[in-house]
Design goal:
The chain has one domain. It is built from ten helices and no strands. The chain is an all-alpha fold. The chain is globular, with a radius of gyration of 17 Å. The protein has helices spanning 2-6, 8-23, 26-33, 36-47, 54-72, 81-100, 114-130, 134-151, 156-177, 186-210. Helix 2 runs antiparallel to helix 4 and helix 6 packs parallel to helix 8 (134-151). The longest helix has 25 residues, at 186-210.
């Protein structure tokens, strides 16, 4: 029960954020967006039943960097966009290390090589819209694909979270750089995927770390 209670605050903030986005309550949406990662960090601290060690701090650091990314990644035309992109790059780099070490339980499936197709395809589709951001987005996409692939060597919950995160970033890239790709309530879908992805990753890592001898597998 402690595990589930730990993430109540995150679920509440997430619900408020998605509802406020759908309703067009901009002030509430902004405030709740910037409260998402702090609430998730709190959830991790509460749900983790054992003393913290290096992998736990890696998770907290990844969430803290994601919080900075939430603050700065909003407008591709803003000078702060690259700051936010760098923060999310750091978060995924930490996830990559975490997935390949502390919570890894099997080999990375060969099918994850399809993520290379996703990476190349996205860059090809957006190549005329990215301009200066082509190289930064290519580098970010590479680490995103790598961390997603690594997640498949862990628990199902972590892998699902990584896929949701990737889906959110894919939709966000289209919304930011290709205006024709924006659809009604696209921000609701993007943030819903992001919220679910981050929550699943955090909960999955904590569950794996709480497990006896830390041996949770994708196939369980």
């Amino acid at each position: 029960m402690t595990f589930l209670r730990g993430f109540i605050a995150y679920c509440v903030v997430a619900t408020v954020h998605v509802v406020s986005l759908a309703a067009g309550w901009d002030d509430v949406a902004s405030a709740s967006k910037f409260s998402l990662m702090p609430a998730l960090i709190l959830g991790v601290v509460i749900a983790r039943r054992r003393p913290f060690s290096r992998p736990d701090y890696l998770l907290l650091a990844a969430l803290a960097l994601s919080w900075l990314g939430d603050i700065f990644v909003a407008d591709a035309e803003s000078s702060s966009f690259l700051v936010g992109l760098a923060a999310f790059f750091g978060a995924h780099a930490l996830y990559l290390v975490l997935f390949l070490t502390a919570v890894r339980s099997r080999r990375i499936p060969g099918l994850t090589a399809l993520l290379i197709v996703w990476w190349v395809g996205l860059l090809v589709i957006l190549r005329h819209d990215l301009g200066f951001f082509f190289i930064p987005l290519a580098v970010y996409g590479a680490v995103l694909a790598a961390s997603t692939a690594a997640a498949f060597a862990t628990q199902r919950l972590i892998a699902a979270g990584a896929v949701l995160f990737l889906a959110s970033d894919t939709a966000l890239a289209g919304a930011l750089f290709s205006p024709s790709a924006v659809w009604w309530q696209s921000d609701v879908l993007i943030m819903s995927l992001y919220i679910a992805g981050q929550g699943a990753i955090a909960a999955g890592v904590v569950r794996a770390r709480n497990a006896p001898q830390n041996t949770a597998s994708v196939g369980e």
